[in-house]
Design brief:
Distance between the termini of chain B: 5 Å
Helix content of chain B: 40-55%
Largest sheet of chain B: 6 strands, parallel
Largest interface: A-B, 33 and 33 residues
Structural class of chain B: alpha/beta
Number of strands of chain A: 11
Low-confidence stretches of chain A: none
Strand content of chain B: 15-25%
Mean pLDDT of chain B: 95
Largest sheet of chain A: 3 strands, parallel
Radius of gyration of chain B: 21 Å
Oligomer: heterodimer
Structural class of chain A: alpha/beta
Order of helices and strands of chain B: HHHHEHEEHEEHEHEHEEHEHEH
Radius of gyration of chain A: 19 Å
Number of helices of chain A: 10
Shape of chain A: globular
Strand content of chain A: 15-25%
Number of strands of chain B: 11
Strand order of the largest sheet of chain B: 5-7-8-9-10-11
Low-confidence stretches of chain B: none
Number of helices of chain B: 12
């Protein structure tokens, strides 16, 4: 039985933009407004997103990455060698089982990541950054390279990314895995002081109703950090806090840390609904902490 | 000469002219708007004086009454549809529609007209593209066929072969939040039976011979391809007409073997150019995007292909020679030019009319080159 169980709540990935911001984005694309107008509202919404999470007690706070067009493009745009140029007009490709899309990069060879360009593209990162894991990245690109070369090349790219993030003060990375991955990023980050939280979006996507099966699965795999998605970004349905009765014994024999979070990017929801989901995540985590603290 | 082989077609939407968007949104029409409308009427061989009169009348009403009358607004919408039809005709397409000039967007237009759905908010899709997402809150149904007015107008505007695009049940369901059924199969079946099929029947009763069911969401989940197939069959089975499906931006491998169960599907219209190389040639390595046609030909030997030969997500113009090579590759893989319908990858509504026209014209020019090459 674990001596202590740490419960963390996490908001990760790309957050929804307000309708006003979405319209401004369209207007900017058509040359009707200045970039400064868009940036001003972006900054306000980033601030509001952070405040919301602080207010409801979220532990791993994401800034919403509102200037990220998708999970890959800012990284590719800031990589001066190694990818086919012109990512803004690259093929439009479906984002996994989703009705959002991204521009599919073509990996050519050894990469050279440039942090200055990255900051120009999406702004300086906050203390927490969400990144797709290397295997998810590999699944989202085209390349003529052999799989082993892809793996080496992306490992090198992620090392550059982690060095940059460390240098600009990033403290935590949420590794979003849309395909099963290993702890590679955790190992790569070990010298940087950055803590990595892995959120396997698909591999362990769990609804609370499936918790019993989840605990069994986690125990079999020897998972010490258990990720439980307690709010659903695919639905408007209110996520009702579940019964915690099974938690203490199951969790105590399985996990040292429980990460409570959301399934899929919250950007799939209109902003007001996503805001409500974040509040529910905070409430859920608070109740879980209280219950487990009193029970174990 | 085989006139039934390599017929070119549109896929659906064109952008709406600025003057139409401005007028419908209640914005002030200005001289640039009038000049734009006159420019396109002139370029497309339409009556420029009529275009100027329509916009001047609307602008006059704005100055006198602060709002455009419903009659003038209808005239503006009709002018946009007339120009959209003329643009496709001038580009040389064999099979056309009106560029969906009366539809806000393929999902929103359908969802807003379906009883039992209500709006929830705006969602970003990619880049700066968005759509307004609805929730299903009750049993879905329709009051009237959605397309009666636009089809009546189209039939006045052209005697060319037309193909009417309509949003499919799977996409309508998948892109909506389900707050009623809590069961995907029930949701999609209800939309197919109560919403899409009545619309298809309405189109057939208006004399439309070919209905294209748009299903961009069909490939979203590999576990639900069978549900998409069921929804198409529920929407069209037993009806006398020609039916096709438009699919785009998916992993085509997911569709096999389920699509073999499609009934009454005359054509699969598919996006290819987006993922193809820009090099000339007809080999497998030069035309990688089209390889899936081998599998489609085996799975659906009687089905024709709406063949995307120009990309809709970039302004870069494909050369006719590139379009030609894409057509030739498809003919080689399908073994029959009459099974190939060259087209854009998808609707062109995100491109300007200048770019859209060029893309359509190059589709036609490339097809002409292919016909020459094949001796058709």
């Amino acid at each position: 039985m674990s001596a202590t169980i740490e419960i963390l709540s996490a908001v990760h990935g790309i957050a929804p933009r307000s309708e006003e911001l979405l319209r401004l984005g369209i207007d900017y694309g058509k040359g009707r407004v200045d970039r400064t107008v868009v940036d001003e509202l972006l900054a306000q919404e980033r601030s509001a997103w952070l405040s919301l999470q602080a207010d409801v007690g979220i532990d791993v706070v994401g800034d919403g990455q509102l200037r990220w067009q998708d999970h890959l493009r800012p990284i590719v745009k800031a990589t001066t060698a190694g990818f086919e140029p012109h990512i803004d007009t690259a093929p439009v490709t479906r984002w996994f089982a989703d009705n959002r899309f991204y521009r599919r990069p073509i990996l050519l060879g050894k990469t050279a990541f440039d942090g200055v360009t990255f900051n120009d593209v999406v702004g300086e990162p906050g203390e927490t950054v969400s990144l797709i894991g290397p295997k998810t990245f590999a699944a989202c690109i085209d390349t003529q390279l052999e799989p082993a070369a892809v793996s080496r090349t992306l490992q090198d790219l992620y090392e550059q990314l982690l060095r940059f993030f460390s240098n600009v003060g990033v403290k935590q990375i949420v590794q979003e895995d849309y395909v099963p991955d290993t702890n590679a990023l955790t190992e790569l980050a070990s010298d940087t002081g950055i803590e990595v939280h892995r959120v396997p979006i698909h591999a362990f996507e769990q609804r609370p109703s499936q918790l019993t099966r989840f605990w069994s699965h986690a125990r079999q795999l020897g998972i010490v950090t258990s990720v439980i998605t307690v709010v659903d970004a695919n639905s408007t349905a209110p996520d009702v806090p579940q019964d915690f009765r099974d938690w203490p014994t199951e969790a105590a024999s399985t996990a040292q840390r429980i990460l409570l979070t959301h399934a899929a990017d919250l950007e799939k929801l209109p902003l007001p609904i996503a805001q409500d989901k974040v509040k529910r995540l905070g409430e859920y985590a608070a109740r879980a902490k209280e219950y487990i603290g009193a029970t174990i | 000469m085989n006139n039934e082989a390599l017929l070119t077609q549109e896929v659906g939407s064109l952008a709406k002219p600025n003057w139409r968007v401005t007028a419908v949104a209640g914005g002030q029409l200005n001289s640039d708007h009038i000049a734009e409308a006159v420019y396109w009427s002139d370029r497309l061989g339409l009556d420029t004086a009529e275009a100027a009169d329509i916009l001047l009348q609307a602008a006059h009403e704005q100055s006198q009454q602060a709002a455009i009358s419903s009659l003038s607004l209808q005239n503006i919408k009709n002018l946009a549809a007339q120009q959209a039809v003329a643009l496709q005709v001038k580009a040389g397409l064999d099979i056309i529609y009106d560029g969906e000039q009366d539809r806000s967007e393929m999902y929103q237009h359908a969802a807003a007209r379906t009883l039992g759905l209500e709006p929830r908010g705006l969602i970003r899709v990619f880049d700066d593209r968005t759509f307004r997402k609805f929730a299903v809150i009750g049993e879905p149904s329709i009051e009237d066929s959605w397309h009666t007015t636009e089809v009546e107008r189209l039939q006045r505007l052209t005697d060319k072969q037309v193909k009417v695009p309509i949003t499919g049940a799977y996409t309508l369901g998948d892109w909506s939040f389900d707050e009623h059924f809590q069961d995907r199969r029930q949701l999609v079946h209800a939309l197919a039976r109560n919403v899409i099929r009545p619309n298809v029947v309405g189109l057939l009763e208006q004399g439309i011979g070919w209905v294209q069911i748009d299903e961009p969401a069909a490939g979203t989940s590999s576990e639900e391809i069978d549900l998409f197939v069921e929804s198409f069959n529920l929407s069209t089975a037993g009806l006398l007409g020609k039916f096709s499906i438009h699919l785009c931006f998916s992993d085509w491998d997911r569709f096999f073997p389920h699509i073999q169960k499609l009934i009454n599907c005359h054509q699969l219209s598919i996006e290819f150019a987006n993922r193809d190389s820009h090099e000339y040639g007809v080999s497998t390595t030069k035309r990688p995007a089209y390889e899936v046609l081998r599998h489609i030909a085996r799975a659906l030997p009687e089905t024709t292909i709406g063949l995307g030969v120009v990309s809709v997500h970039e302004d870069q113009l494909e050369t006719p020679q590139l379009a030609r090579d894409r057509v030739l590759r498809a003919v080689e893989l399908l073994g029959d030019p009459s099974k190939v319908f060259p087209s854009p990858d998808c609707g062109l509504r995100t491109r300007t009319w200048h770019v859209a026209y060029e893309k359509l014209a190059r589709t036609v020019a490339g097809t002409h080159l292919a016909r020459q090459e094949l001796g058709l």
